[in-house]
Design goal:
alpha+beta, single chain, 30% helix, Aminopeptidase
């Protein structure tokens, strides 16, 4: 699936109980990696909380932590390969599903990619995200 900059719809504002923070330090990346590993990989440490942080520092991977009433509830990220962006690692803890967390996580990544000059964002959709992504403008091309 993909979203073209020219086809990006207007998005609603996040509910008041949800805040999104772009990861910009090692501690926030560690939180991002731990939640990502827990939700997507059933706790298996695919992403190392310390060894993979340089990829974030170099701007190859831009990560977002989503908080629901101050509790880390979800994550998302963008993989930037020389200006070609891919939405990756969208994950929400079970206790926070159906509260707008995934929507906020994806919108934050989309807005950031287009702010960086992306013309296109791609995504491989699996699991429950395959229902959300078309609502946010992603289409099969």
């Amino acid at each position: 699936m993909a979203l073209l900059a020219a086809e990006k719809p207007e998005y609603p504002r996040n509910p008041n109980h949800i805040t999104v923070h772009k990861v910009n330090n090692a501690e926030d990346f560690k939180l991002w990696a731990l939640l990502c590993n827990f939700v997507i990989h059933q706790g298996y440490p695919i992403i190392h909380p310390e060894l993979h942080y340089p990829v974030c520092q170099e701007g190859i991977l831009t990560c977002f932590n989503v908080y629901d009433q101050g509790t880390l509830a979800g994550v998302s990220s963008l993989l930037n390969h020389n200006g070609v962006f891919s939405l990756e690692f969208v994950a929400v803890s079970d206790a926070f599903r159906r509260r707008g967390v995934a929507t906020a996580a994806v919108i934050a990544a989309i807005e950031d990619a287009f702010a960086q000059g992306a013309e296109l964002i791609t995504v491989r959709s699996i699991g429950k995200s395959k229902y959300l992504l078309p609502k946010l403008g992603f289409r099969i091309y």
